[in-house]
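Collaborator request, handled under Task 6.
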Amino acid sequence: MATARRIPEATVARLPVYLRSLLEVAEAKTTTISSERLAELAGVNAAKVRKDLSYLGSYGTRGVGYDVEFLLYQISRELGLNQDWPVVIVGVGHLGHALANYRGFSARGFRIVALFDSDAAKIGEQIGTVAVRPMDELDAVVRAQSVAIALITTPPNVAQEVADRLVAAGVTSILNFAPTVINVPAHVSLRKVDLSIELQILSFYQQQAAGSLTAIADDGPASAVS
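Structure tokens returned to the collaborator:
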């Protein structure tokens, strides 16, 4: 009996970056791309690109490279983007609004089917083509729409409670934007996006860069040796 091949997590994390790069070159009517060019666009080295794509069974053609359209198909299929994934968003604050209005989701196969919030003042609000629903309708909507993926954009103090309700309703993949750690059962996939952490990392590199420039300025121009 054949078993599904295992693709390393690091490779899976890079596939969306390759996809984005390939979409850019496809828009420019480019039909083939070398591993070196794809690596340059994705910010990795060519050897890593070739290794990653080999997990998809794609090895390119020596002297020609990879067929862009076929590689787009392979990566989209591997990421499950050729399917229609119904998605719910819980928490309709500023971030929830922004995500609900993001058209890039539908272009990648993710369809926002419902928005939920516990604030009575927000119930019935129309965001795009989707209205905000009360939390007591969450279970029924998840089951009726066969929702497997949910985004949590709530305040941190209620994020765990929301995650528990989503899991109980049958959601098996959660993307958490709330700035807190939540726990889910082993069978549920959990990803976290903490914008404050990302900004702190940028702050570190900005400080390093500023420090390097200051050091160069303090050293002054190199003296000529007589």
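The cover message to the collaborator said: "The mean pLDDT is 89. The longest strand covers residues 110-117. Please let us know whether this matches your experimental observations."
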